[in-house]
Amino acid sequence: MTDSKPLTGGGLLFKVLEQHGVNHVFGYPGGAIMPIYDALYDSEVQHFLCRHEQGAAFSAVGYARASGKVGVCMATSGPGATNLITGLADALADSIPLVAITGQVPTAAMGSDAFQEIDIFGLSLACTKHSFQVSHIDELEKVLHQAFEIALEGRQGPVLVDIPKDIQMASIEQTFKTASPLKNKVKLPLADISKALDLLTHAKQPILYVGGGVGMANAIEEVRTFASKTGLPSVSTLKGLGALNTSDKNYLGMLGMHGTKAANLAVHDCDLLIAVGARFDDRVTGKLDQFAPDAKVIHFDIDISEINKRRIADAPILGDLKENLPLLTLSLNIKNWQEKTQQMKRDCAWRYDHPGEQIFAPAVLKEVSDLMPENTCVTTDVGQHQMWAAQHMSFDDPSNFLTSGSMGTMGFGLPAAIGAQISRPHDTVITVSGDGSIMMNVQELATIKRYQIPVKVVLIDNEKLGMVRQWQDLFFDGRLSETDLADNPDFIMLATAFDIKAKLITKKSEVTAAINEMLDHDGPYLLQVKIDAKDNVWPLVPPNSANNEMMESA
Amino acid sequence: MNTLTLNNYTLIIMTDDKQVVLERILQVTRYRGYLINGMTAKVNTGTNIATIELFVSSDRPISLLTDQINKLVDIKSVKVDNSASQLAIPKPPQGTDSAGIRNVLR
After folding, report:
1. Most CB within 10 Å of its CB: which of A361, B16, B42, B55?
2. Are strands B35-44 and A525-530 parallel, antiparallel or unpaired?
3. What is the pTM of this model?
4. CA–CA dist B65, B72 (Å, integer)
5. B73–A130 C-beta distance less than 8 A
6. How distant is the alpha carbon of residue B17 from its chain centre?
């Protein structure tokens, strides 16, 4: 581009992205976004060509979650835009800051059922925190700034900006003005902590229940200090994993449907539940009216709509965790309760003495966790392997465990790992996937090949949609329906086709060497781990049951 | 047989007169489990602020809806009008500014 070429809407987009510190975007070009891709040609922003727009959205999610920055993805109109939807929904459900840019047919053609025209603005209403459709070039700069502000403000989330092609091509001068806030932000009053202090002072069996909001609020240090100073027995949600210090003797692990027995029993028995950035999700509570049935509740959250949504809070505390949580720090006399929960933890410790020669997935994942370098980022797909990873791997920060929590989206792991690796090029990134999930976005192996992204894939292969098979066995009288994947492709050949080194292991004796080989390999690597198709995830809280009614075997 | 008792509520929503704000409110209201019984909308063209009266019914506490609507970016305020009849579905007032409605609906 010569200096004399006027700035277009497309060029302005990248100027604003640069203003917001965006170095990397993920996308896929097409007709209605061509002026933006033309402007990309002259931009400092590095674009990663994914092989499906859903892959681009999940890479942006992984990028955001691993780095704490806003993830950015782009797609053309019509099918390109609709392919972003699942990623946007996932980001909304897990409160991930994302800005999605979609091309739209020219303004004059809008509403005419034009080629590759879809009302993505309308479709976005249910799966974004907010969305914009730019109707004039003069509003583009302001809208883009607002998109970043909204994505990051309060409870974070995805924002979509739909830009018609003629606006991408229109000439404009950048004003370099940031947008004024959309809402008159009212600083939340300092929380009235007195009721919470009173509840905690009189509690005999309190539990600290930590969720994903802790990492999102960047309040990990505050939560760990609070846990340490109070000595509270603590539990974590799936998305909260990594927030608490796993070596803390009072930490009981994950609670909920596949939580530890100690965590679920302790929560069931507690008389005070201190929920911190957690939202009483149905996978956490089991049968809601029997969740912590005798407990009072202190609920810290940034989002008022989560307060009293699923469980009435006796002491709701709205606002910034970093400011509010330290106010509740007390010296507690709960020695008997601590001893009881510590004994529960000892009694319910994981066992890895799996009979036979076949590989036991929990043991493999425990070993990967023990051997992986410090600050490794692990992503997962969704299913049995996801729960085994959550149960048997240890994480020292929520940004080191990226999993699709609320939406439970198969196909998340591989593209999220790509995004994570690009945001943290010096850290090891491992994706734990299943033979069902990996096929959901398998085309992203081509993205790995193109950019030689050194993601390690641990593929737990039971030739089944394992979690659905487990439920069919347990709750549908063993009537297995459409869960057999014995005709999967040869994953070693598949990886090799993408120039990715790969290895298959089938016996316990091969595990340690294979993990070390994978971790020592400089480039991308796929480790296929064959396991017994009948292995189940335990414990399991059956549907419509209380958490203390968990099953530990079939 | 459904034995749930539905309560009627009138919400007074003040909002910037922005693109699809009404569509956003209706989507949230439906998704969160509230039946829409009626509505009125008008815009103060001087301030560009729209006032929407929304008549809804549900077995759920109304705070679950007001908190969600209040989160929408363009919303200024949401109030439950306790003075309004909770038994009858109010009719839209006569003489509502149709031009104003058009702005909100755009």
Report:
1. A361
2. unpaired
3. 0.94
4. 11
5. yes
6. 14
